[in-house]
Design brief:
binds manganese (II) ion, 18% strand, single chain, globular, 12 helices, inorganic pyrophosphatase (n-terminal core), six-stranded parallel beta sheet, 337 residues, 40% helix, alpha/beta, five-stranded mixed beta sheet, Diaminopimelate Epimerase, Chain A, domain 1
């Protein structure tokens, strides 16, 4: 950063003076102590976006918890290293990718150390609360990785092959291979561009391989399945958990419904949640099979989806997105109850 001597002297005299993180001119930032992280229960977009952000802006990519099998598949496919799992963020400046809610924030992150947020989610019931200004880039695109690919391009930063591939994997994951209602033209455009850099000719094939890789959950316990793609929210002042399993072989999980319900009951109690929902999301036939724990949750389901399920599962045709469909419906119901 170029400063006139007077400005430099002034800055030095005010020891606490510091500039806000600069997303437009990365060279302005001090990044020695910077780490990037996504949300708890990291998904592929969270993992790959942390990697992209660290490449574009400097600092180190991390994840707050172990990555899931889909992300492992993508990293393998892309010949990329997994970000390190960080257990203590207290000594770092932190850039957030792919979320903005405190309910999804690693507990060791001091909110006053957050310097940037690059995200594609609504500012929900429990956004981060920071004493100083934070650089923000939040757009209604299909994945955080799409936003980062756009930023890289605008900053003339070339992504290496493995990162272009990782970014593509993130877009395919969050948009469910462009089938989710959250998909935008920007996602398609940057998927093409990233595929070209990565030398991937058949995007759909990469996407299908990814969907297959994440679909086989037979070797996992119901507790693991419940929390593998799981987010906490605050809706209408209530603590709400929504887990999702996106799978091409939904029946495999529907057959394990009793086991999943019992895992949900324990999880809800252990975590002091007001409500807990789980969707066995059928990415082949495009429907959500929603599970809930008790009569309180059932009331919410009834209001949210204007339905009176007579069994312990509600199937919603055409519903595949927690972000766009399931979450907002439950939020609206809880804010109206
Ligand atoms: Mn995302």
């Amino acid at each position: 950063m170029k400063l006139t001597p007077i400005v430099a002297a002034l800055l030095m005299s005010v020891s606490s003076a510091s500039y806000a993180f600069d997303l437009q001119t990365p060279a302005n930032n001090e990044t020695d102590n910077l780490v990037w992280t996504g949300h708890l229960s990291p998904d592929t977009d969270t993992v790959m976006s942390a990697m992209l952000a660290a490449h574009i802006y400097g600092g180190t990519a991390t994840v707050p918890e172990q990555i899931n099998p889909e992300s492992e598949f993508v990293l393998n496919y892309c010949n990329a290293e997994a970000p390190r799992v960080e257990s203590d963020y207290s000594a770092y400046q932190v850039g957030l990718v792919d979320f903005n809610q405190t309910t999804q924030l690693a507990p060791t992150i001091n909110q006053s150390s957050i310097v940037a947020v690059i995200d594609h989610h609504a500012i929900g019931g429990s956004p981060i609360n920071t004493p100083q200004i934070v650089a923000m880039d939040i757009r209604g695109w299909g994945s955080a990785a799409t936003i980062l690919a756009d930023n890289a391009q605008k900053l003339n930063i070339t992504l290496p092959k493995h990162l272009a591939c990782a970014g593509l994997g993130a877009i395919l994951s969050d948009t469910v291979v462009f089938q989710s209602s959250t998909t935008t033209d920007y996602d398609r455009e940057y998927a093409e561009k990233l595929a070209a850099i990565a030398g991937i000719e058949d995007i759909e094939d990469f996407g299908q391989q990814m969907l297959i890789a994440k679909s086989d959950l037979s070797h996992l316990s119901s507790e693991t399945i419940l929390t593998m793609d799981y987010k906490n929210f605050e809706y209408g002042g209530k603590k709400v958990g929504i887990g999702v399993a996106e799978t091409l072989t939904a029946q495999q999980l529907i057959d394990r419904k009793e086991e999943l319900l019992s895992a949900m009951k324990s999880y809800k109690e252990a975590n002091g949640l007001d409500h807990l929902f789980f969707s066995i999301t059928d990415t082949k036939d495009k429907k959500a099979n929603l599970l809930w724990v008790d009569a309180d949750d059932y009331q919410v389901i009834k209001t949210a989806f204007n339905a009176e399920p007579t069994s312990d599962m509600l199937t919603l045709d055409g519903v595949t997105s927690r972000k766009r469909q399931i979450g907002p419906a439950i939020q609206k119901a809880l804010e109206s109850l």
